[in-house]
Specification:
With about 425 residues, the protein is α/β, with parallel strands linked by helices. The protein folds into 3 domains: about 150 residues, Rossmann fold (3-Layer(aba) Sandwich), CATH 3.40.50.720; about 150 residues; about 100 residues, Rna Polymerase Sigma Factor, Chain: A. Helix content is about 45%, strand content about 15%. It is built from 17 helices and 11 strands. The strands form 2 sheets. The protein has a 7-stranded parallel beta sheet with strand order 4-3-2-1-5-6-7, sandwiched between helices. Bound molecules: magnesium ion (MG). The site of magnesium ion has 4 residues, from α7.
């Protein structure tokens, strides 16, 4: 078998590092021809050396300049660099483990060049699900396989059967660190509390999203576009130990589940080996030891972000991109961990409140082009920043006329 030539985007993140572990288990199957990262060039350098990578992309221009001093590899930068990397003729397979909205265009570009894509960047499907599906129809030699653990589970359970045979899909959610905390105590939650995820070790942004259940909300939207299932037939169930990765209920009454230890190496390798299954040295479940599996309904009143995601999903068009972009802006601010009385400080319960305000003010465009999506994304970030920077420290919006006016103006675009 010829080795698969891989471009790994987000090489220094949690998906990237798990991917490297998979490559190390199968040196006969993969060749890493390109790696991309944000700005952590010191972390990228040993990867370049170990895997003898010839093409590198760094998002941050000054980090790229620094890296060039330390490697013979060709160093690209920014979005142009990412787009060039995914379209290189020697690349067969793009593994997209980027965090956030920047992962969207590289996915589209890879598909338009007929590449196979392993997608861990859920923002791609959230922002541009329709565009991605259209691109896949235009480029039948391309293939998109989900790596998000829940979507990998659904993909494995579906085993190629069409959406018409599915009654519903059910995404499992750990419930995050605040599942058992009373809603009245949510006001005191700070960054450090929200970063204590019970089952998965992930980057900071997605860990906050797990604590608000926005991560599950984005996954609901992702599932809709990946599998063509209506929002009414996508359910979420809280499963604190993250052993069942998701369910598919078929119309004949059969409920399929995929189980495994929470380790991203498995969905990453499956996306690469599909439809084959290769050996993988990860922990095995011992069901007799586990003894019981627990499931609970989600509490949308405690975690309004989940409800907001269904709302945006049902609105369709640019609404999911708007919700996603506003969420990125709000979570970035929350991660700054400003002192509660500091200007622009936001608390945990402000996250859904601000996102709801942005959705309320948004003008949704149906069947958007990529430019429309990018424009909606930029508008939503600005709208979220405006709310955060004009709110009083007690969390209510300052009714200042100029702020109101500019919000309304932005919404008109
Ligand atoms: Mg997931």
């Amino acid at each position: 078998m010829r080795k698969k030539n891989i471009a790994l985007l987000g090489a220094t993140g949690s998906i990237g590092l798990a991917s490297l572990k998979v490559f190390r288990q199968h040196p006969d199957k993969f060749r890493l021809v390109g790696v991309a990262a944000g700005r952590q060039w010191e972390k990228l350098l040993p990867i370049i050396n170990e895997f003898k990578v010839e093409k590198v992309c760094i998002w941050d221009a000054s980090a790229a300049a620094e890296l060039r001093k330390h490697t013979q590899a060709r160093v690209l930068e920014g979005m142009e660099g990412l787009l060039e990397m995914v379209s290189l003729p020697e690349v067969d397979y793009v593994l997209n483990g980027l965090v956030g909205a920047i992962g969207c265009r590289p996915t589209l570009e890879a598909i338009s060049h007929g590449k196979h894509v392993g997608l861990a960047n859920k923002e791609t499907m959230v922002m541009a699900g329709e565009l991605i599906n259209a691109a896949l129809r235009r480029n039948p030699s391309s293939r998109l396989i989900p790596i998000d653990s829940e979507h990998s589970a659904i993909f494995q359970c579906l085993a190629g059967r069409p959406a018409s045979e599915v009654e519903h899909i059910e995404l499992t959610a750990s419930g995050g660190p605040f599942r058992e905390r009373p809603k009245a105590a949510f006001g005191a939650i700070r960054k450090a509390d929200a970063l204590k995820h019970p089952t998965w070790v992930m980057g900071e942004k997605i860990t906050i999203d797990s604590a608000t259940l926005m991560n599950k909300g984005l996954e609901v939207i992702e599932a809709h576009y990946l599998f063509g299932v209506d929002f009414a037939n996508i359910k979420v169930v809280i499963h604190p130990t993250s052993i069942v990765h998701s369910f598919v209920q078929f119309r004949d009454g059969s409920l399929m589940a995929q189980l495994g230890c929470p380790d991203m190496q498995l969905p990453i390798q499956y996306a690469l080996s599909y439809p084959e299954r290769w050996p993988l040295n990860v922990d095995r479940l011992d069901m007799a030891k586990i003894a019981k599996l627990e499931f609970f309904p989600p509490d949308i009143d405690k975690f309004p972000c989940l409800g907001l995601a269904y709302r945006a999903g049902n609105l369709g068009g640019t609404a999911p991109a708007i919700l996603n972009a506003a969420n990125e802006a709000v979570v970035a601010r929350f991660l700054e961990d400003r002192a509660p009385r500091e200007a622009g400080a936001i608390g945990f319960t402000d996250i859904p409140r601000i996102l709801a305000s942005v959705l309320d003010a948004a003008e949704i465009r149906q069947h958007p082009t990529l430019d429309h999506v990018i424009e909606a994304d930029a508008w939503a970030r600005k709208a979220a920043l405006r709310i955060m920077d004009t709110q009083a420290s007690d969390g209510t919006d300052v009714p200042a006329a100029p702020a109101r006016q500019s919000t309304a103006k932005a919404a008109e675009r």
